[in-house]
């Protein structure tokens, strides 16, 4: 039976630190590398719900998440002039109920990094090449160093380099859902108090929320667009694209776009789903968005990453290091959960960014449907007990 111990994990987002936590707990020796010089803490809030709550509890981080949770008490829908159309309680506005909890993505990343304890994490580091051999994987890093690992895990997000390096083009499909998402923080110049304000019209949505830190507001932009950027990864183009798309949109948009110039946590991406029949190849596996991104809109990315990380590490423990068996089980167990969440991603994508103005009735009907579905998909898997 192959002995597995030294495991390289690429990407310190949600999936990377989570898989390191479980691997370490189950007796393996993971090493984490992150391309950026620091943790990438940008982004909007993400939700922990369904079986991911059980995982957070079992990791001992649920209380911490509760302590750092967002505290949006009110969701407000406005029109182009800022008139209030209707309001909802914060939890319902975010499709949460019961133990479901919302936290800023950056806070969750920090909690996960803290939870993984003494797992080494090397910043400003990335992989130049991955060569699979019979008994190990030879990895060359950007500084020219070469290391051997028993396994390599790509947890490097939607635009995963690991996926590109290891899998053939016909082994994954990227499905662009025809929409984009952006988030960044600005000063809370509207003095929002635990409130999230949202304006949606003509297939565009802009939101601004402030809760725990009264000085800061986090903005969110979602929109459908046909004109694809020349280079989706170029931040200057992304900012220009956002400005062009939202100019004259109404409400506070002009002021928010003006303040965007000073934001240092700008995040922008397309609504893209990653579809793969298998997330493993040889001694390499993908965890999180790299293998099964469902797109940001349903807010299920962090849950999928947490669940995927647990199952991956747990199956490796269960198989006593027989990675062939563990990889097969990982693919098999996770596939229905991922399929349900991606289907849900399409439903949410179709429900928002509509052409017509969103009346109170339409918004309520939409919330009811999404709340019903999200509860089902976030519980769509029974977690094995690996302890
Ligand atoms: C800055 C940022 C902001 C986000 N904001 C939101 C949001 O507001 N709402 C939402 O729903 N989702 C957001 N997401 C996506 C969300 O985090 C994921 O959908 C989900 O949590 C799954 O996490 P992940 O760990 O698989 O991927 P990610 O969270 O994307 O993490 C991937 C990590 O890998 C690193 N990385 C990438 N390439 C390499 C490489 N070659 N070598 C080493 N490291 C690499 C990245 O820097 C990043 O830290 C954001 C992601 C990022 C990176």
UniProtKB/TrEMBL annotation:
Chain positions recorded as FAD binding sites: 14-15, 40, 44, 105, 289
Transmembrane segments: none
Alphabetical UniProt keywords: FAD, Flavoprotein, Nucleotide-binding
Highest rank taxon of the organism: Bacteria
Protein name as annotated: Tetracycline destructase Tet(51)
Highest classification ranks of the organism: Bacteria, environmental samples
This protein's encoding gene: tet(51)
